[in-house]
Design goal:
- The complex is a heterodimer of chains A (70) and B (475).
- Chain A is built from 3 helices and no strands.
- Chain A is elongated.
- In chain B, 39% of the residues lie in helices and 15% in strands.
- Chain B is built from 16 helices and 13 strands.
- In chain B, the strands form 3 sheets. An 8-stranded mixed beta sheet of chain B has the order 6-8-7-12-13-11-9-10, with helices on both faces. In chain B, strands 1-3-2 form a 3-stranded mixed beta sheet.
- The chains are: A mainly alpha (70), B alpha+beta (475).
- The interface between A and B is large, with 44 and 56 residues.
Chain lengths: 70, 475
């Protein structure tokens, strides 16, 4: 994964993709799709005052498994 | 027209009456895989010698009373998506990048089925690494829909759906990252189950997105899906997302009907992009459930459209991460569409990916509170439009089809982000004679309720009173 918020294709890693023969058009299309996805995802950033992480989800499911009865 | 192999329930009766029929059934399944299966492009690998040896061993054990032969899957021939590894068997994941790969381990769920006495007959075509909803695969072949071979059978568990619908095997395991069990099940008139995330272990299954991947059965009946789900649900020590949960006895609850259950019609998102004949059919089913005693209400699933985008974002990043090295070293061996989908993940900022993961718990809690405190299940379309032909949906030959293909998973992907269970069940046929289906979504660990609703619809609609007209030709 490349952390690139400006989506230009001139970084070292993206250059490597160019070097191995992936067409610039394919990279531009991928960058455009990525940008659209990030906008659609409307991500909320809770910030440092209310930190959360991926493990919260696993914890939620474990809690539900423990509490779920037929 | 060829006679299909029966359901698990029907085959169980044959085996109970005559133990040597285990070998007969295995040979029949192997023969169908080699003829009809190849005709439909549904087959990746046939394990003829291994399956026959296994069937002989089970026959012998049954005759000598050496085995618990009462297990529902004892002697039942099955075959699975080409993402399931069995040590020393080929496993290519539908990709030229894995051409000739031999698996070094056996998937956890296959060991579970082995313990129950199932006979594994081989591997079925998969979309490349599970990255696609229509079933197109330029390397492994694009399976045809047994109901009409001009049409897609959906993906990515494409071969599984084709083989089960064609009566080649009674059941198959698929995998579902954004709808890859449910979409092909719906396209082929099958019951498809996407279990709660963590209920079924995934070690030994080729990954696409470890955060979202689930594995589940495709079968012709609800009962058969319940049998498979019961068999494979267990803690998998090699899968860190595996969760300890004792499923109730699913078969005991199947015939309880829908009286007392509350079923929700989502007032936002799911029907907004759904073409009218599909929505009309589901509306009739909703009314039917009400007549059968369910309490049917409108519900809102606030923000669910965001879950669709989150699901695509996570899959893109994790898929790109898993295949980054191959992209750099060997990108020509990927199919064009797979490569295009994988490249997207390389352009998503790490901060956005992290936020998609960290928002998951609060999002799931909100849907639980807003929706599933009010209802036991939500009913939605699976495919938002009438099933397209293989030609119409081939994005390689017809780039305008890309938008239609993207829409195909809009009703299934949000469920993977939530990690909730969903079941698809056929409800009839469209104007082209192809199956139509509904999706039932529930709160985590409520598979028993979803299967109960699905069984009620199955009993009322009796979809499989009709079956595909297929003729086997020698290969």
């Amino acid at each position: 994964m490349v952390d690139k918020s400006d989506y230009n294709i001139n970084s070292n890693f993206i250059s490597k993709l160019n070097d191995v023969g992936i067409a610039p058009e394919s990279l531009t299309n991928a960058a455009a799709t990525a940008q659209r996805l990030c906008i659609e995802a409307k991500l909320l950033n809770p910030g440092a005052l209310a930190p959360c992480n991926h493990n919260d989800y696993q914890h939620l499911l474990s809690e539900l498994a423990r509490r779920t009865t037929i | 027209m060829t006679e299909p192999l029966g359901t698990i329930e029907a085959l169980q009766k044959r085996i109970a009456a005559n133990p040597t029929s285990i070998l007969e059934l295995t040979i029949e399944a192997l023969s169908k895989l080699d003829t009809l299966g190849r005709q439909l492009n549904a087959v990746a690998h046939i394990a003829r010698d291994e399956a026959i040896a296994r069937a002989e061993k089970l026959c012998d054990a049954m005759l000598k009373n050496k085995y618990d032969c009462s297990a529902p899957l004892f002697g039942i021939p099955v075959a699975h998506k080409d993402l399931y590894m069995r040590a020393s068997w080929p496993c290519e994941g539908g990709s030229k990048t894995l051409a000739g790969n031999i698996a070094k381990q056996t998937a956890f769920v296959l060991s579970r089925l082995d313990d129950e006495g199932a006979v594994d007959c081989g591997r079925l075509t998969s979309v490349e690494f599970g990255l696609g909803t229509t079933g197109h695969n330029s390397y492994a072949g694009t399976p045809s829909n047994p109901w009409n071979q001009q049409y897609i059978c959906g993906g990515s568990s494409s071969g599984s759906a084709a083989a089960v619908a064609a009566g080649i095997v009674p059941a198959s395991l698929g995998s579902d990252t954004g709808g890859s069990v449910r979409l092909p099940a719906a396209a082929c008139g099958l019951v498809g189950v996407k279990p709660t995330h963590g209920l079924v272990g995934r070690s030994g299954v080729v990954a696409l997105s470890p955060t979202l991947d689930t594995v589940g059965p495709l079968t012709r009946t609800v009962r058969d899906s319940a049998i498979l789900l019961q068999a494979i649900s267990a803690v998998d020590d090699k899968d860190s997302s595996s969760i300890a949960y004792q499923l109730p006895n699913l078969l005991n609850l199947l015939e309880d009907g829908v009286s007392g259950l509350r079923i929700g019609w989502p007032s936002n998102y799911f029907f907004e992009d759904t073409e009218s004949p599909v929505g009309d059919d589901i509306s009739e089913v909703f009314s039917l459930l009400e007549r059968l005693g369910a309490e049917c209400v409108d519900v809102e699933m606030s923000g669910i459209e965001t879950a669709n985008a989150m699901s695509m974002l996570i899959t893109a990043v994790e898929g790109a991460s898993l295949h980054q090295r191959t992209i750099l070293e060997n990108h020509h061996d990927f199919g064009d569409q797979s490569l295009a989908r994988l490249l997207v993940g390389l352009f998503i900022p790490a901060s956005d990916y992290n936020n998609a993961l960290t928002n998951r718990a609060s999002f799931a809690r909100r849907i639980l509170e807003d929706t599933f405190k009010k209802v036991d299940a939500v009913i939605t379309p699976v495919w938002p439009y009438a099933l397209p032909t293989i030609e119409e949906s081939d994005v390689g030959a017809n780039p305008q089809a890309a938008a239609m293909v993207l829409r195909s998973g809009g009703n299934t992907r949000p469920v993977n982000y939530l990690g909730f269970p969903a079941v698809t069940v056929p409800i009839g046929f469209d104007a082209n004679g192809l199956p139509t289906s509904v999706q039932l979504i529930g709160a985590p660990f409520t598979e028993h309720k979803l299967l109960r609703i699905a069984r009620t619809l199955e009993r009322e609609i009796n979809f499989w009173a009709t079956r595909p007209k297929l003729a086997e030709t020698a290969h």
